[in-house]
Structure to design on (188 residues):
């Protein structure tokens, strides 16, 4: 992506002060202009991701949040941003496939039933046969790889700090819908 700035946030690992230095070294070997910051403790994905609100100025552009076990296709960011801009989305996510077997779907967004229970849009170990290759609205997308309009993320106050393990993505997308934002799956 032509205008990409990378910020890597490393949560402390108890009794392993060398981890942050090792991560910083590995990141800079691949992305020399990346900024690496250590976050005190290990408060969970959402609270760590919220550090962008403190470290990054401005409300224009996008934040792309990725878990540490995600490898993006080379064109993923451009395709996500282009479709989100074209569709007027506030949140967008790619189709997520299994690391070891990319023919297996891991995530294509999800819906929520009337009781607030997550309703996955795929079956466990479902094979990717192109059945989820259309851009579409969904209730929520995974924080494993989530593009969020910077202004929306700031207006929402980021991820809810009290959700430290699972559910931060559902909560953020739910609040985005309440703000009138679209949540999209961009499978390309």
């Amino acid at each position: 992506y032509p205008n990409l700035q990378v910020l890597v946030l490393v949560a402390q690992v108890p009794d392993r002060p060398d981890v942050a230095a090792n991560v910083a070294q590995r990141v800079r070997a691949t992305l020399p202009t990346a900024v690496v910051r250590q976050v005190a403790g290990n408060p969970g994905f959402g609270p760590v991701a919220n550090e962008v609100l403190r470290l990054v100025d401005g409300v224009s552009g996008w934040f792309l949040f990725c878990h540490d076990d995600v490898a993006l296709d080379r064109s993923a960011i451009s395709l996500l941003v282009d479709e989100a801009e074209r569709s007027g989305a506030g949140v967008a996510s790619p189709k997520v496939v299994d690391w070891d077997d990319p023919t297996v779907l891991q995530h294509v967004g999800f819906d929520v039933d009337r009781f607030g229970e997550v309703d996955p849009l795929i079956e466990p170990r479902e094979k990717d046969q192109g059945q989820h290759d259309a851009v579409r609205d969904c209730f929520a997308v995974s924080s494993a790889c989530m593009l969020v309009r910077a202004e929306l993320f700031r207006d929402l106050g980021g991820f809810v700090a009290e959700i430290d393990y699972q559910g931060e993505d559902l909560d953020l997308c739910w609040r985005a819908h309440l703000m009138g934002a679209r949540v999209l799956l961009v499978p390309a």
The chain is about 30% helix and 25% strand. Residues 18-30 form the longest helix (13 residues).
